Amino acid sequence: xxxxxxxxxxxxxxxxxxxxxxxxxxxxxxxxxxxxxxxxxxxxxxxxxxxxxxxxxxxxxxxxxxxxxxxxxxxxxxxxxxxxxxxxxxxxxxxxxxxxxxxxxxxxxxxxxxxxxxxxxxxxxxxxxxxxxxxxxxxxxxxxxxxxxxxxxxxxxxxxxxxxxxxxxxxxxxxxxxxxxxxxxxxxxxxxxxxxxxxxxxxxxxxxxxxxxxxxxxxxxxxxxxxxxxxxxxxxxxxxxxxxxxxxxxxxxxxxxxxxxxxxxxxxxxxxxxxxxxxxxxxxxxxxxxxxxxxxxxxxxxxxxxxxxxxxxxxxxxxxxxxxxxxxxxxxxxxxxxxxxxxxxxxxxxxxxxxxxxxxxxxxxxxxxxxxxxxxxxxxxxxxxxxxxxxxxxxxxxxxxxxxxxxxxxxxxxxxxxxxxxxxxxxxxxxxxxxx
Length: 436
Hints:
The protein is an alpha+beta fold and 436 residues long. It has 2 domains: 1-70 and 110-152, no CATH class; 211-435, Alpha-Beta Complex (Cathepsin B, Chain A). 32% of the residues lie in helices and 17% in strands. The chain is built from 13 helices and 18 strands. It has helices at 74-87, 90-102, 175-194, 199-215, 219-226, 248-259, 290-293, 295-308, 315-322, 338-345, 357-362, 406-415, 429-435; strands at 21-24, 31-32, 42-43, 48-49, 122-127, 130-132, 138-140, 146-149, 243-244, 284-285, 288-289, 327-328, 348-353, 366-373, 376-384, 389-393, 403-405, 421-428. The strands form 6 sheets. It has a 6-stranded antiparallel beta sheet with strand order 13-18-14-15-16-17, with helices on both faces. Strands 2-1-8-7 form a 4-stranded antiparallel beta sheet, with no helix packed on it. Strand 5 and strand 6 form a beta hairpin.
């Protein structure tokens, strides 16, 4: 057996030794196979121990394969189902899930579940009581992945110039993923302990996914969400979370109507910022009034006033641009992904924040705070004033003064029963690059 293994596994009947590469059909990266205690037989130039069929233990022999994209992964199935139920069905839920996964907002770490032994092994050569492992051997993960040995000709090339690998770049702390994981993992743990999806667990996860899907964090996320108009369902899911679209005819009629209405009245402050959406029943959005369902458009207009000043587009134009993204049919309905999509198309840097929101917003041109509570999704625009204070625009009743700190606002939101507060910053790309 030692002689046969001298080829290092160049063919499918070659033997397998420690530190050879393995891959999973649903993993994002290849990894090494390991063995903590050898079976008494070595092979290869480095004299590494050979493996047998019993070397299949997850976390010991099979470490991980990065991220998992298997539809049989229970964590992934659960989270995608939450997004689907939130947005009214599997079709749109799947589209949004794909966007969130691709941009890293929602991802699923590989946690192998390899309970069975390796198959396609060498039954004629028994190594420490079990058949020897071969290059053609395969292993099945309970979550649907097929694990195989990587052919040697697909190994990465060594660095011939330096003979050393470059030091990996330090990964940026991903607060968005951290927050998502914490919220959804807590929901899953409650379900696991009770054996059923408790209403509170599902609502908590849905609210977070509502805000995450709405904000988007990158150009790809925003532009993809912005193109989902044709897929928004009209009749499924919780009534307050149904996504509603605007027909082309209604959109054109609304545009002509809104252009004829002067943007003036008690809903504006002295600087021209919208501070009372509830008084804007003269303006139309979809087949509702802005007072009923224009929160997303109002937030965009106020942010544009902070970023562009006198060059801010007419309110009618902003409503027209936002309508194809659809909105949630709760009071003040917030446009799913439309807010981020609008500013990305305008050339701004858009980022989602869940930690140190106040600090991040101090450096941004405009900020928005999003939360969901009691069947209501809100987006409030804010801007830095002095010290730690921010000016808030279009505040709902009971949310305190128009000038306050982010922490004060957060406490008020949480006191009303909101489970998650997210911040979205919008900044000029040139200024962002200079700061970096």
